[in-house]
Each structure stands twice: as structure tokens, then as C-alpha cells.
Design goal:
With 172 residues, this protein is an alpha+beta fold. 32% of the residues lie in helices and 15% in strands. Strands 2-3-1-4 form a four-stranded antiparallel sheet.
């Protein structure tokens, strides 16, 4: 039985296409999982006013007339300051220090195609007491918590997030 050259060329082309697809998947996967180089943007939150402003009382203006002097008005009662509400205790995150070995671990809580979805997840995490930020990498908006030089600290925060129902991934 003799091989036909057309069948051989078709099989060779199919194997070549398969090898190229595997190579693209490998390179693309490494780029997707590579750590981001951008620094997290600080979150600016408005600070609520704790004490109300004192009530303004318009000054009474009377024309100057000779005659009996009016009685002075009794002094206005001083407003009683109300104690500031105590904020809810937040989970104490592990010490975040500068990396010694050059490896920084982050706890990733989501990767989204749309920035709005990533912002919604980050806001929910902030409401739960975590310092969440968004990194854009590989066409995705990644919601991450913390930057740890120690994998154990990252693991501890990941456990706290899992306890609150989040799916997490620790990335170097």
C-alpha cells in the first residue's frame, strides 16, 4: 500500500495547525496569568460630616428710636453634641510589607470584561471591610485585595473572603 501525497500533505497541515493552536494557547495563557505592573489606584471616599452646623439665627435689625430699651433675649440653649457613632469593626488585614524576595501576592476576587461589573464587585468588597482595587490586564478588569510579600498573609485574607462567600485566587 502506497501513501498518496495529497493525504500526507493534508495530515501534515492538520498537525501543523494543531501545534500552532497549542502554542498560541500557551503564550496567551501565560500573558493572562502574568502579574500586573500597574500600581493600585487609591480610592477616594467622601468623609461624612459628624456634627451638624450650628443653627444660624438672622440678626434682628431695628431702626434706632429713642425710647425704652427692649429686654435682651434669653441666650439660646447650646446644642448638645451627640457622640459619633462607632464604626463597625473591620477585619484586621495582615501586615502588608514591601517584598523582600521580589514576589508580591494578591488575592483576586474576580476578573470582568466590563469595568462596571468590576467596580460593583470592588464596592461590595469595600462594604464588607476589605481594601479592594481594580487592575486592568489582558483586556480584563481584575478585582484584587491586598499586596502581600508573604503567601501566608495572602492565604489568611483569602480564607476571610471565602468565609464571606467569595471565590478567590491567590496570584503571584
Amino acid at each position: 500500500m502506497r501513501f498518496k501525497p495529497v493525504v500526507f500533505l493534508v495530515a501534515l497541515a492538520a498537525i501543523g495547525l494543531f501545534a500552532i493552536a497549542v502554542l498560541i494557547g500557551y503564550v496567551g495563557g501565560r500573558a493572562f496569568l502574568a502579574p500586573t505592573a500597574s500600581a493600585p489606584r487609591p480610592v477616594v471616599r467622601p468623609v461624612p460630616r459628624l456634627t451638624p452646623p450650628p443653627p444660624s439665627v438672622p440678626a434682628q435689625q431695628e431702626p434706632v428710636r429713642p425710647g425704652p430699651k427692649p429686654e435682651p433675649a434669653p441666650p439660646a440653649p447650646e446644642p448638645v453634641p451627640q457622640p459619633a457613632p462607632e464604626p463597625a469593626p473591620k477585619p484586621s488585614p495582615p501586615q502588608q510589607t514591601a517584598p523582600r524576595s521580589g514576589v508580591i501576592y494578591r488575592v483576586q476576587v474576580g476578573a470582568f470584561l466590563r469595568r462596571e461589573n468590576a467596580e460593583a464587585r470592588a464596592e461590595k468588597l469595600r462594604q464588607d471591610g476589605f481594601d479592594a482595587y481594580i487592575n486592568q490586564s489582558g483586556g480584563l478588569f481584575k478585582v484584587q485585595v491586598g499586596a502581600f510579600s508573604d503567601r501566608d498573609n495572602a492565604f489568611q485574607v483569602a480564607q476571610e473572603l471565602r468565609a464571606k462567600g467569595y471565590e478567590v485566587l491567590i496570584t503571584p
